[in-house]
Amino acid sequence: MSALPSPTTLYKALVSRDSAYDGIFYVGVRTTGIFCRPVCPARKPKPEHVEYFANRSDALHAGYRPCKRCRPMESGGSPPTWAKRLLQKVEGHPTERMTDSDVRRLGIDPERARRYFKTAYGMTFQAYQRSLRMGLALREIRSGGGIVEAAMDAGYESDSGFRDAFEAIIGSTPGRADAARAVYAKWIDTPLGGMLACADDEGLCLLEFVDRRMLQTQIETLRRRLGCAVVPGEHPVLRQIEEELAAYFKGELREFKTPLRAPGTSFQMKVWERLRAIPYGQTLSYGEMARDIGVPDAQRAVGKANGDNRLAIIIPCHRVVRADGTLCGYGGGMWRKRWLLDLERGERKLDLG
Fold it and tell me: Which stretches within the chain are classed as H helix?
């Protein structure tokens, strides 16, 4: 994701079908669940019914499906026949995971598919499948709408089919679960893209960018550790973190007060506790982290524990850098890490309007 022009400029380009913006942004239509290229010939929605994305992956993770008229997944030119077959197969059955063996049965080399999708769409074929599947579940969480309506919007002919697909992705039905064992999930919009927040009565147990590849794994880990279902819903903890994140991104909050529930191994919890102690606007190296928790030779293990962190921003793994001060890996993407550090150092002018 990169910075986009103002919504006013983008909507003007959309209405005029300005070809100069083709490939620069994509537009999601909330009322249809479809995303398009700016040059799409379809009737233009009202400005309050659209949102903009810098790339196709962001649109997919937001729960939008590619438009069948302007074919946004083909904006770089029409794909070869074999790639069209894969796209049609996945778009027709988005919740069914195609393995390499399935791809071979279609007479297609899986490695060829991986390379082509990576070059043409910026993601591998498997990542494209994951994006579609997760997008369906996230759209239901984000909308808070009725189950039947969500099922029809997602292209399912029956409520039961949607429930089965949702359960396979998130781990529970989209209806109400046993309140005593439920973790409630909510989509939160931020200047850095959508985030998924999960919480129960004990505290916030997940906060992650929805386009992170490890999101589904994190959800599964959460379910396993807490022995609970993850369902869409509201909760006081979710409202608190949403308000605190808004203040944080405005530069008005430096310390989060939202209660946390972050179960992990004893080593992980030591690392996460040290991360929370890094002051706002400052950084620490992996070596310093390892030394501070009493295992100076465990830099690699510290790095892995950082990657296993399920509470982005709140447990600030973005504040960890190399020994020479340069930036290193971040699950949410290096551009987000740089953005967050610039914000905390007072080096970023906010334009959230």
Answer: 7-16, 56-61, 81-92, 100-105, 110-121, 125-143, 147-153, 159-170, 215-226, 236-249, 266-276, 286-292, 299-307, 334-344
State the binding site for Zn(2+): 36, 40, 67, 70
> What are the pLDDT digits (tens) for 273-326?
999 999 999 999 999 999 999 998 888 899 899 888 999 999 999 999 888 888
Are residues 169 and 157 in contact, defined by beta-carbon separation less than 8 angstroms?
no
pLDDT at residue number 60: 81
Give me the amino acid identity at 308. D
Query: What three-state secondary structure class fits 36?
Result: strand
Looking from the CA of 279 toward its CB, the CA atoms found within 13 Å total: 3
Give bridge partners of residue 118 from the DSSP assignment. none
- Residues with a catalytic annotation lie at 36, 317
**What pTM does this model have?**
0.62
Whether 75 and 23 have beta carbons less than 8 Å apart is answered as yes
Task: State the binding site.
Answer: 36, 40, 67, 70
Burial of 76 (0-12, 13-18, 19+ CB in 10 A): exposed
CA torsion sign, 212 to 234 to 229 to 206? positive
